[in-house]
Amino acid sequence: MTHKPDYTAAELLAILSARQLKDGMVVFAGVGIPLLAATLAQRLHCPGLTILFEGGVVGAFVEPGKLPPSTNDQRCTARANMVLGSADVLLLLQRGYVDIGFMGGAQIDQYGNLNSSFIGDANHPAVRLPGTGGGNDIASLANMIVAMKHEKRRFVENVDFITSPGWMHGKDTRRQSGLPFGGMFRVVTDLAVFGFDENTHRIKPLALNLGVTREQVQDNTGFKLDFDSDVGLTEPPTDRELSVLRMLDPLRLYIG
User: Fold this and answer.
1) Where are the alpha helices (DSSP H) in the chain?
2) Stretch among 5-14, 77-86, 165-174 having the lowest mean pLDDT
3) What is the predicted pLDDT for the residue at 3?
4) What domain count does the chain have?
5) Known catalytic residue at 215
6) In CATH, what number is assigned to the domain containing residue 190?
7) I need a surface site. Which of 4, 35, 104, 141 has the fewest CB within 10 A?
8) 3 domain residue, yes or no
9) CA distances from 164 to 100, 113, 132, 179 (A)
10) What is the separation of C-alpha 179 from the centre of its chain, rounded to a whole number of angstroms?
11) From the candidates 11, 54, 157, 235, which is the catalytic residue?
């Protein structure tokens, strides 16, 4: 009989995402799992991590149990270094002060382009999504980490609309499109952790999560994946990671 993990898929997603961050980084975080992961990293192994919010907050240190539902929520400002206007905090991106942009998306494609605008035909969309916000700015100017649930309808060969650019059409097309900096770095899902081939800039599995097979990852992806022979395994969440995570989100608003 297969042992059922004592953590949820959302908890796994947050913990694996937090592990991608390093001390001293400046991270532009979206709400939800990206914010939770960045806050978790601050508490565990990145005391010098600086979190930026689109609403203008620089150096946020979110209090346990008070995770904000929006980057414009006043709870974002607790213990922050400063609060700027939205234009000023986005200028930090343009000046190269941000190491990592961290967000989710409704769709992602083989080159890491994100769609958070609409699903279907542009003139008659089946679903209207929230739109870009600062997502396009962040993805255009910084290295990106994306955290999202792994489903075939989300992992598509070509997104319906490029809200936030990854590697565009692969190879050197991002730079040719006028974006010489940044690019998609990691995609973290409840099934695996992905990187991008340094030449083709196409997504590739780096490590599978505990109990997940290559077939399972492929079956939940809308395009063919190339697996290297040395694809690794991610380390399961530790007791310490889980206890700190649950302390930060005691109402389980994000981690389920």
Assistant:
1) 9-18, 33-44, 86-94, 135-141, 173-176, 214-219, 239-248
2) 77-86
3) 55
4) 1
5) no
6) 3.40.1080.10
7) 4
8) no
9) 14, 6, 7, 12
10) 20
11) 54
| Residue indicated by tokens 């009989």 | 1
**151 lies in a domain?**
yes
pLDDT at 1 over 50: no
Find the mean pLDDT for residues 215-229: 97
At residue 227, does pLDDT exceed 70?
A: yes
Query: Higher model confidence: residue 163 or residue 55?
Result: 163
The token duo for 59 is 């150096």
Contact predicate 163/188, CB 8 Å = no
The pair of structure tokens assigned to 121 is 């035909």
* Lookup result for tokens 């979190």: 51
Q: Is residue 144 part of a domain?
A: yes
- Domain encompassing residue 58: 9-248
Instruction: Give me 148's structure tokens.
Output: 């999202």
What does the buried/exposed string (b/e) look like for 90-117 if buried means 16 or more CB atoms within 10 Å of the residue's CB?
Answer: bebbeeeebbbbbbbbbbbbbbbbbbbb
Name the more confident of 70 and 205.
Answer: 205
